[in-house]
Structure formats: structure tokens, C-alpha cells
């Protein structure tokens, strides 16, 4: 007879599945007494998904809705991020679309899904991570439910696995779109043009990953309105140099995307379509300034903020086991929080200048969305990023 605690573990366990550009994660939080049951459930979900015709059709409907919602959102950051990756890694690896093209939705059936699972759900690509459980007990459960188990897609050997390394190309992706009526409520929303400019950084396996993370925190940024308060980054460069000085800028935010074989540091900016050229020049200037003098005070503030964010996130157990799983999957080991904090503290101004200067020597990746009549050419953006002051080349018009 099953133990009495099985029922509550099964019926009330918090769980979720998360998909990113390079990983898939199945996660469960439960009482440690139910470890055997939970690992069994995880193994069953991962290795024996039912994939009925009804479930697949319902998922197709959900995907169509999400794609429609993606194109209607006032905040275009997810779409711009996709466009930027497509421009940066043209036709390869992380440059492929993360969101399913509408025309492919109907083509995905059980056979396609089983083929994908057969190729990518293999033992050498999996990590089982646990927090708050005995290691030996977790190993015992893994052997019981994951070793020698026949998956739903059969035991054929994977034959179509893409193991290519990301090739950074740079480039531009533009999408002309009427952004004058994106408000989801009665209050009007200003028409904005959105751009994202990025440069290749490094993978998370390289030593320079930490200086790039500090540089990203030093740039910071956000929207033109913020609740402020301690730790909100109001003294980052994009707030001080961009949002505080140019009232017409609605957004200026730095992001850092890092993968096993490449990385991308970018800035997202939004403004009125009539000020697109000025907005682009402001962002190219900020990129060029990254390779200049680094103030000790701003560097210490960025390092402190990064360590604070790291430690606050790791107060949550779900974040801890995600951190354990991702690190072991990528590096076969895990750096403890105090080790990471030591690496962050050791970043010096010359490290920031070195990685920024290296980044600026590459080709830019550009994504632009909205009214693009005044968008500078890709060549002019490249010239600006290669210059000493970040200024765009002057253009002359015979007629106004």
C-alpha cells in the first residue's frame, strides 16, 4: 500500500516547465519525504509524454494566440530580442527563431515531436538537480527511474543532432510597423520607434564573462518612469547620461545574453519616430564610452549591485536548483555564491575597458521596429561605433 503522504505530494505539488533559447527545464517543489514520488513523476513527464492528438491541437491553438499576443504587445522587447539574435547570428544556432513561425504550427505532429525528443532528450544532455535533499537518496532515485527506462519515442540512436558552434555575423533586421495604436486601454500610448543595437561579448564559460556582467550592470537603464528607491539602478550610465538628459527618450536599457559558445551585449532604446536618428547617435556614443575611462565609484556601485542581485535571487530555493542545474549542465561543476562574489570584486577598471574595446572592434547587430523613415543606415551605425566619439556621419539633403 502506498504511504499516506503520496496523495498530497501528487495533488498539490508546485511545478513548471521552462523553455529558453538553449535549455529546457522541468521543475518541482515538494516535501523532501516525497522525493521518490517526485523523481518518478518528473521521469514520467520527461520520458513518457502522452502527446495525444487533442493535446497537440490545443497546444497549436495556444501557440497561435501567443504569437498574436506577441505582435500586439505595447512592450516589444521580446520581439526585438528575437530580431536582434536573427541579425547577429544570421542563419545559424541561436540566430534561429525561438518562436514558431505561423506557417509551421500545423506541420508539427507527434512524429515531429518524437524526432526532436529522440535527438535532444539524451542522457549526456540531461542534469538532475535537487536542493534540500540527500545526495545519495537523489542518486538512488535517478537510478531507479531514469536508468534503463525505455522512452516513449523508442530506443533508436539520435541521428540528426545539430552540434554546430554559433557564428557571429552581425547585420540588421528591420520591421516597418504602425505603432500609433498599440494601447490596450482607454489611455493613449505614444507612437514609438524601437531599436536594439548589440555587439558580440563572450560565452559564460570564458573568464571575461564576469567583467561583461559588471559592464552590463554599470550601463543599467530602464524606462523613463521608475519607482526608484535603493538598488533600482538610478545611478547607472543609461539613467544618468540618457534618460535624465533627454526627456524624449522613453527607454534605454542594457541587456546581456550569454550562451555556451557566444554572447551578446545590447542596448534597447525607444523614442518618437521623429527623433530616431538622434536616439541612435546617443546609444552609439554610450557604446563608445564603454571603452573609455571607468570611474572607480560607478564600478564599485555596479559590482555591489550585481553581488546584491545574485545573493537576493539565491535566497529562493527554486532559483538555487535552477542555478545548480544550469551550471552543472554547462560546466559540469558549480561555482558557489562566495566564489562568484570574489570574481566580481576582482574586476578592475582596466578589465571593463579591455572587454569593451574588444567588443567595439566587431560588427554590430541591429534590430529596428516601427516607423523607420529616419533610421540611419547600417553602414553609418557601424562607422559611428568604430569612431572615437560615437557620432553618426553627417548627411546632407538637397530638399527639406
UniProtKB/TrEMBL annotation:
Domain annotation Peptidase M16 N-terminal: ranges: 20-101
Instruction: Read off the InterPro entries from this record.
Output: Metalloenz_LuxS/M16, MPP/UQCRC_Complex, Pept_M16_N, Peptidase_M16_C
Question: Which GO biological process entries does UniProt record here?
Answer: protein processing involved in protein targeting to mitochondrion
Q: Report any Pfam family annotated for this entry.
A: Peptidase_M16_C
Q: Where is the Peptidase M16 C-terminal domain?
A: 107-306
Q: Name one GO cellular component term.
A: mitochondrion
- SUPFAM superfamilies in the record: LuxS/MPP-like metallohydrolase
Any idea which GO molecular function terms this record carries? metal ion binding
Q: Which PANTHER family does the UniProt entry name for this protein?
A: METALLOPROTEASE, MITOCHONDRIAL-PROCESSING PEPTIDASE SUBUNIT ALPHA
**What does the sequence similarity comment in the record state about its family?**
Belongs to the peptidase M16 family.
| Role, per record | Substrate recognition and binding subunit of the essential mitochondrial processing protease (MPP), which cleaves the mitochondrial sequence off newly imported precursors proteins.
> Can you say what this protein is called?
Peptidase, mitochondrial processing subunit alpha
Question: Which species is the source of this protein?
Answer: Rousettus aegyptiacus
The organism's taxonomy opens as: Eukaryota, Metazoa, Chordata, Craniata, Vertebrata
Amino acid at each position: 500500500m502506498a504511504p499516506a503522504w503520496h496523495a498530497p505530494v501528487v495533488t498539490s505539488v508546485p511545478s513548471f516547465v521552462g523553455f529558453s533559447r538553449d535549455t529546457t527545464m522541468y521543475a518541482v517543489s515538494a516535501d523532501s519525504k516525497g522525493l521518490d514520488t517526485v523523481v518518478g513523476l518528473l521521469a514520467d513527464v520527461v520520458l513518457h509524454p502522452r502527446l495525444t492528438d487533442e493535446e497537440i491541437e490545443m497546444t497549436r491553438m495556444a501557440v497561435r494566440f501567443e504569437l498574436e499576443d506577441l505582435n500586439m504587445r505595447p512592450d516589444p522587447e521580446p520581439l526585438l530580442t528575437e530580431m536582434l539574435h536573427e541579425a547577429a547570428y544570421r542563419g545559424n544556432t541561436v540566430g534561429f527563431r525561438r518562436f514558431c513561425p505561423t506557417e509551421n504550427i500545423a506541420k508539427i505532429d507527434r512524429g515531429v515531436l518524437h524526432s526532436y525528443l529522440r535527438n535532444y532528450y539524451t542522457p549526456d544532455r540531461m542534469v538532475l538537480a535537487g536542493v534540500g535533499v540527500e545526495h545519495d537518496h537523489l542518486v538512488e532515485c535517478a537510478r531507479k527511474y531514469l536508468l534503463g527506462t525505455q522512452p516513449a519515442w523508442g530506443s533508436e540512436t539520435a541521428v540528426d543532432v545539430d552540434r554546430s558552434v554559433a557564428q557571429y555575423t552581425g547585420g540588421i533586421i528591420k520591421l516597418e510597423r504602425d505603432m500609433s495604436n498599440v494601447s490596450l486601454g482607454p489611455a493613449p500610448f505614444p507612437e514609438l520607434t524601437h531599436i536594439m543595437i548589440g555587439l558580440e561579448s563572450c560565452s559564460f564559460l570564458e573568464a571575461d564573462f564576469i567583467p561583461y556582467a559588471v559592464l552590463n550592470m554599470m550601463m543599467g537603464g530602464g524606462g523613463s518612469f521608475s519607482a526608484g528607491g535603493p538598488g533600482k539602478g538610478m545611478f547607472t550610465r543609461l539613467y544618468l547620461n540618457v534618460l535624465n538628459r533627454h526627456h524624449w527618450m522613453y527607454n534605454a536599457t542594457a541587456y546581456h545574453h550569454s550562451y555556451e559558445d557566444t554572447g551578446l551585449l545590447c542596448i534597447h532604446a525607444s523614442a518618437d519616430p521623429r527623433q530616431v536618428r538622434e536616439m541612435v547617435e546617443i546609444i552609439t556614443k554610450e557604446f563608445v564610452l564603454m571603452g573609455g575611462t571607468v570611474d572607480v565609484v560607478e564600478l564599485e556601485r555596479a559590482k555591489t549591485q550585481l553581488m546584491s542581485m545574485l545573493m537576493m535571487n539565491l535566497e529562493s530555493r527554486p532559483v538555487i536548483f535552477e542555478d545548480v542545474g544550469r551550471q552543472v549542465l554547462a560546466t559540469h561543476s558549480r561555482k558557489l555564491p562566495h566564489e562568484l562574489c570574489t570574481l566580481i570584486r576582482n574586476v578592475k577598471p582596466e578589465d571593463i575597458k579591455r572587454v569593451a574595446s574588444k567588443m567595439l572592434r566587431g560588427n554590430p547587430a541591429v534590430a529596428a521596429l516601427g516607423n523607420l523613415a529616419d533610421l540611419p543606415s547600417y553602414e553609418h551605425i557601424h562607422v559611428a561605433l568604430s569612431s572615437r566619439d560615437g557620432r553618426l556621419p553627417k548627411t546632407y539633403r538637397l530638399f527639406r
